[in-house]
């Protein structure tokens, strides 16, 4: 079992032999929920690629512990980078999509207000939903022992997605009527790979046309039609295997 991961407010001064403090909500979770004790292994991360590996040196009260650092690791930016444009699902299936994509290894997630989305993020409701997605990515990143958590961007409309797709090294729109399977697509060795996942009601023809205009072609995953909350995870796993990031 690998050591549990917790998010530190700062890793300034992290070096072998140094001692770092974990307190606040993360410290409370480590002490009161995980019940970590002196001598147990732990990893502190900033969520941006740096991790301090060490052992618990002291436990103070119910929400504070000291960590003796044994090693500091810095994960390089992944290459190629995988971004998923995720249409807004109904209910809590959005958090499910974010959770599984984070565990799989997606690097960035863009919430997309597609024309046929039943759910639309507006006002405080939209801000709350975005906070939930970001909190889900953070918790799933910790659970899956990642040092670099995926960025969850501000929600975008179709027009706002076009620059992202135009600048990508490879952009694919997941669509059951795609003429080419994603499994045989010609992939670049580096750069950004962008996957577009439509809503349960499907991608509108005018959206497909707009995406095609900037080079994002439709690709199919397989003979079955996946739900919007699972398609991004399946497609990302395929690309992670094909690009060697899972080697």
Automatic annotation (TrEMBL):
| Residue stretches making up the Ribosomal RNA small subunit methyltransferase E methyltransferase domain | 78-239
Q: Which InterPro entries match?
A: Alpha/beta_knot_MTases, PUA-like_sf, RsmE, RsmE_MTase_dom, RsmE_PUA-like, tRNA_m1G_MTases_N
Name the SUPFAM superfamilies on file.
alpha/beta knot, PUA domain-like
Question: Does Disulfide bond show up as a keyword for this record?
Answer: no
What is the documented function of this protein? Specifically methylates the N3 position of the uracil ring of uridine 1498 (m3U1498) in 16S rRNA. Acts on the fully assembled 30S ribosomal subunit.
Record-stated family: Belongs to the RNA methyltransferase RsmE family.
Q: What is this protein called?
A: Ribosomal RNA small subunit methyltransferase E
Name the species this protein comes from: Streptomyces macrosporus
């Amino acid at each position: 079992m690998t050591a549990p991961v917790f998010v530190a407010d700062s890793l300034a001064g992290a070096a072998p032999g140094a001692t770092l403090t974990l307190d606040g909500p993360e410290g409370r979770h480590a002490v009161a929920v995980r019940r970590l004790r002196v001598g147990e292994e732990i990893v502190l991360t900033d969520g941006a690629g740096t991790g301090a590996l060490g052992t618990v040196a002291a436990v103070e009260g119910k929400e504070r512990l000291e960590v003796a650092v044994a090693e500091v690791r810095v994960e390089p930016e992944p290459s190629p980078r995988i971004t998923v444009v995720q249409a807004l699902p109904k209910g809590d299936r959005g958090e499910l999509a974010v959770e599984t994509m984070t565990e799989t290894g997606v690097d960035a997630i863009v919430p997309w207000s597609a024309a046929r989305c039943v759910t639309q993020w507006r006002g405080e409701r939209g801000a709350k939903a975005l906070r939930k997605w970001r909190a889900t990515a953070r918790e799933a990143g910790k659970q899956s022992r990642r040092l670099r958590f995926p960025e969850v961007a501000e929600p975008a409309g179709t027009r706002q997605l076009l620059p992202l797709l135009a600048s990508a090294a490879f952009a694919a729109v997941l669509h059951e009527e795609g003429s080419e399977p994603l499994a045989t697509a010609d992939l670049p060795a580096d750069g950004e790979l962008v996957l577009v996942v439509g809503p349960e009601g499907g991608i509108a023809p005018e959206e497909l046309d707009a995406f095609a205009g900037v080079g994002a072609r439709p690709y199919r995953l397989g003979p079955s039609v996946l739900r919007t909350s699972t398609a991004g995870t399946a497609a990302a796993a395929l690309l992670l295997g094909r690009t060697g990031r899972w080697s």
